[in-house]
Design brief:
With 352 residues, the protein is α/β, with parallel strands linked by helices. It has helices at residues 21-32, 42-68, 76-92, 109-119, 135-149, 168-178, 198-202, 229-243, 269-278, 296-312, 328-351, and strands at residues 6-14, 96-104, 123-128, 157-160, 188-194, 251-256, 283-287, 317-320. The longest helix has 27 residues, at 42-68.
């Protein structure tokens, strides 16, 4: 008798269907209209996004997407995500069915869940592909899945992987990718994470008054700050720095992709580039450990924009450390994340 199917749903952020301006507009509208991404009243968000940001931002963003778009494979984010889906499916075998979705645009979460519903799987494990938890990324995926599934008449068991910032195999891959380069040849190392508005950090915890300085989020993970995005970013960095035998003065944590004029998490990557250039640093090794697949934010923002910016400041080189992409250890990490709950269930069953 065949074992019942188990469903795995991988969800990444999203990408336009093409680098054309209309498709980029459609993507940006869906992305930025998410109330967890731009967490302001809906009427203000609509005026800001649809009236100002998207009309002015879309043409420039389309040019950036064209710069990273491959003629054969298209969007790098979608390309690597599809590879992760395929390779994970191969590792898990026929007992499982692995679906891929994007939080924004295609393939949609709705279509992926519909496929799993048609298969009548007994269990679904949802893995938002964001190592560090944030309401605007992982939280948004979880909310969307629950919103769509509430219409179902019958429910399989559903679980969510809400963070994996300290996953040892993920750290292995980033370390291996960094060691492809002569680390000693670089003057400084930057760990550049995707930014968030500061107000979203304050929302961590029950009081809505989370203070990263008081909670020592840059130094350690505690019961108080364990859901803080900044705390998890610094925890990932400490693990990588330890693996690479970096001293504290050898590296800097910073945050990229700021949007709007409200305060975002600091230091901003652009400010850090200026600072290290003033210190006479010439060659930088840069990680983007908030991303599991190379995409616009890594290939172009780090590999091109920051590289050009640093050279204009007197620097010589910015070397991007490749993301996890299709590395075999990362696929094994995904398999472990996808089946971790089953191992716990098995232990409980044996106890009984």
């Amino acid at each position: 008798m065949n074992k019942p199917k188990k469903g795995i749903l991988l969800v990444n952020l999203g990408t336009p269907d093409s680098p054309s301006v209309p498709d980029v507009k459609r993507y940006l509208n869906e992305f930025l209209m998410d109330g967890r991404v731009i967490d302001i009243p809906a009427w203000r968000r609509t005026l800001l996004i649809k009236g100002i940001i998207v009309p002015f931002r879309a043409p420039n963003s389309a040019k950036l997407y064209k710069a990273v778009w491959d003629e054969k494979t298209g969007s790098p984010l979608l390309h690597y995500s599809l590879m992760q889906q395929q390779l994970l499916q191969e590792q898990l075998g026929d007992e499982y069915h692995v679906e891929l979705a994007m939080r924004y645009q295609n393939p949609s979460i709705e279509s992926a869940l519909a496929n799993l519903q048609r298969l009548r799987v007994d269990r679904i494990c949802v893995i938002p592909l964001f190592p560090q938890y944030a309401s605007a990324s992982t939280g948004s995926v979880i909310e969307k899945v629950m919103q769509l599934m509430r219409k179902w008449h019958t429910f399989p068991e559903v679980s969510f992987v809400n963070q994996f910032y300290d996953n040892s195999l993920m750290i292995d891959v980033f370390e291996e990718n960094a060691r492809k380069h002569d680390i000693r040849a670089f003057d400084h190392v930057l760990f550049s994470y995707h930014g968030l508005p500061v107000r979203q950090l304050r929302a961590v915890g029950q009081t809505g008054m989370h203070d990263c300085d008081q909670a020592h989020c840059r130094d350690r993970i505690t019961a108080e700050n364990k859901w803080c995005y900044l705390a998890q970013c610094y925890a990932t960095t400490r693990l990588l720095a330890e693996r690479l035998e970096l001293k504290q003065e050898d590296y800097t944590v910073c945050f990229q992709s700021r949007l709007g004029k409200t305060p975002w998490i600091q230091p901003y990557t652009t400010d850090v580039l200026k600072h290290v250039a003033q210190l006479g640093k010439k060659k930088l090794l840069m990680f983007s450990p908030a991303f599991v697949a190379d995409c616009l934010e890594t290939i172009y923002e780090v590999g091109t924009e920051y590289a050009e910016e640093f050279k204009a400041l007197g620097g010589e080189k910015v070397q991007l450390v490749e993301s996890l992409n299709d590395h075999p250890k990362w696929i094994t990490a995904l398999r472990q994340l996808a089946t971790a709950g089953e191992a716990l269930d098995g232990q409980e069953h044996r106890k009984r």
